[in-house]
Amino acid sequence: MRALTFKDGLSYHDDYPVPVPSANEALIRVRCAGICNTDVEILKGYMGFSGIPGHEFAGIVEESPDQGLIGRRVVGEINIGCGVCPYCQSGLKNHCPNRSVLGILNKNGAFADYLTLPMSNLHIIPDSIPDEAAVFIEPLAAAFEIMEQAAIRPDDKVCVLGDGKLGLLIAQVLSLSRCEMIVVGRHRDKLSILEKRGIRTMPGPLPQEKIFDIVVDATGSSAGLETAVNIVRPRGKIIIKTTVAERGAVDLNRVVIDELTLIGSRCGPFPPAIKALETKSVDVTPLISKVFAIEEGIEAFQYTDRKGVLKVLLKIG
Amino acid sequence: MRALTFKDGLSYHDDYPVPVPSANEALIRVRCAGICNTDVEILKGYMGFSGIPGHEFAGIVEESPDQGLIGRRVVGEINIGCGVCPYCQSGLKNHCPNRSVLGILNKNGAFADYLTLPMSNLHIIPDSIPDEAAVFIEPLAAAFEIMEQAAIRPDDKVCVLGDGKLGLLIAQVLSLSRCEMIVVGRHRDKLSILEKRGIRTMPGPLPQEKIFDIVVDATGSSAGLETAVNIVRPRGKIIIKTTVAERGAVDLNRVVIDELTLIGSRCGPFPPAIKALETKSVDVTPLISKVFAIEEGIEAFQYTDRKGVLKVLLKIG
Question: How many folded domains does chain A comprise?
Answer without folding.
Answer: 2
